[in-house]
User: Which sequence fits this backbone?
């Protein structure tokens, strides 16, 4: 029984999802759905590309649509819209707005009798599982999430929006002592600022004052203000040659004392040469889960917290017990 | 609504479970069930201690029984026996025999309409989740489980069974280069032997030849043969003073290339000052899950692979989404 997957949005994440689908024996890439001109999108292996305007033509033909759009402008309305007609999976990652996004997707999916999974990826996603598990096993403990070293798309975009910046890339880099200090008992009241620094590689447009650009970067609220931020001006050629990847990394550390006074620590770390390729793999695992949940007749919205790892796998429950337990 | 827990077996693990139950606001330690003379078991806070022979008196009074017995001789028959009348959680950890144990417990629980969770703990348990997730996200990759540094009860018992050994403790110690080599691409065909060494601290009885004891240890099949094993003879006083804890540690590392060729690695590490205290906390989290599954009307046997992390928590689904995603 092959599971038919449509991929909506075909940027870096969509390409990662397609690769993961094609690596599987039981998944079939049905088509790519794009908001661009379908003729402008070149998909491998003659996989059909259709316009987002024609997405309803997939009704009854696709098992699940994986949405590979941005969390800022696109997913908040596209996920509920598609959940009215399809099983969907998205990687909505605006942490503060997840409850609101959940409610909107849940209403659409529940009413249409479909299954939706939101916020699948590594954070939110796998790291969320770690945080929930740490809290359960070490209820009086603390946990800390550290991101990097790796490329932050949001911060890179923020740099590119500054007048005088032709192109840029921003690396989020953990402060090397942070994890060790946390494990030794330190409490961070503002972990984002206290545990990370920001490295910016910036291509300046001709005629713009680099000192002013640097000042503007370092004073940008939310993104760079209050961080240890370095700005390095590079040529476009150097940026393209030396900063063309999308690596990322992160870890979630839990620390707590059980009632007997013993210190227990747990540490889940990821190191990814390609963030979109790995996130694509995670989305595909959750797409398999969405189909299983749908086949059980359970409609509505789910998050990684609601989904057993057994639902990721193509193996039978008994094979999984033999192999993984 | 308080959840009433009975703890069957009151050694180190049972004490860890009791501590974890008492740390929770919604769980109530109903009683301890022992196969010893109940009068010989001293429980804190006037918690009743009853004989295992009277366990059926708990019917209708207890929500779940957590079994804190050994996996070799006890759980294989006690878990199915208790699942005929109660919701149960155990930490059965004889990896090769889990499928068989599952079938026996499943039959008993399914027929009696109860919920059973087996193999809850950190390995099997949390590490099983990591292995299953790594396989899903990196289907063409490999994973490696490394245990230690920490005390192996099974190996310590094996030492104590040698003629001439009065007491002993065995530490499983990872070979320091193993994790690094694995991440760099090395494949271990026999990870147990290639990634661990064994440190034995032995109290010899008077009149026994230490050289013979050491030879016997190093040649013991399955346990020590083929391992880099060190044997240090110590006095009973030194063993009790310097080797009286039950620390343990371990990690599960996954490594794989996604279809684009990028190397992705994941690493879940635990470091526990007290193995029984932490395992006790994990068992209690799964006891909460067992009650939720039972209340949904789902009878039969489950393993950690089947259980969403949301089931561990006392928080509402919405609070969990806000806090952990």
Assistant:
């Amino acid at each position: 029984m092959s599971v038919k997957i449509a991929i909506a949005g075909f940027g870096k994440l969509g390409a990662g999802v397609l690769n993961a689908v094609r690596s599987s024996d039981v998944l079939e890439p049905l088509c790519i759905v794009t908001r661009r001109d379908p003729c402008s999108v070149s998909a491998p292996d003659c996989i059909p590309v259709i316009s987002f305007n024609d997405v309803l033509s997939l009704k009854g033909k696709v098992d699940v649509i994986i949405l590979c759009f941005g969390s800022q402008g696109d997913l908040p309305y596209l996920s509920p819209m598609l959940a009215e007609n399809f099983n969907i999976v998205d990687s909505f990652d605006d942490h503060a707005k997840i409850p609101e996004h959940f409610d909107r997707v849940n209403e659409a999916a529940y009413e249409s009798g479909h299954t939706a999974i939101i916020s699948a990826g590594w954070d939110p996603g796998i790291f969320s599982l770690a945080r929930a598990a740490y809290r359960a096993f070490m209820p009086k403990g603390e946990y800390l999430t550290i991101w990097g070293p790796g490329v932050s798309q949001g911060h890179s975009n923020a740099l590119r929006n500054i007048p005088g910046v032709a192109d840029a890339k921003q690396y989020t880099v953990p402060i090397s002592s942070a994890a060790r200090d946390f494990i030794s008992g330190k409490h961070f009241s503002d972990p984002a600022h206290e545990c990370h620094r920001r490295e910016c590689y910036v291509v300046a447009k001709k005629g713009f004052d680099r000192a002013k650009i640097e000042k503007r970067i370092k004073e940008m609220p939310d993104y760079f203000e209050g961080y240890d931020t370095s700005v390095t001006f590079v040529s476009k050629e150097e940026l393209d040659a030396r900063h063309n990847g999308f690596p990322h990394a992160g870890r979630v550390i839990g620390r707590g004392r059980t009632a007997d006074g013993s210190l227990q620590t747990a540490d889940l770390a990821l190191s990814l040469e390609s963030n979109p390729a790995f996130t694509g793999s995670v989305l595909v695992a959750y797409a398999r889960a969405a189909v299983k949940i749908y086949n059980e007749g359970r409609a509505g919205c789910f998050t990684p917290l609601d989904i057993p790892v057994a639902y990721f796998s193509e193996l039978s429950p008994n094979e999984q017990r033999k192999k993984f337990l």
Observations:
- The first helix of chain A runs from residue 12 to 22.
- The CA atoms of residues 19 and 166 of chain A lie 31 Å apart.
- The longest strand of chain A covers residues 165-174.
- Chain A touches chain B through 67 residues (CB under 8 Å).
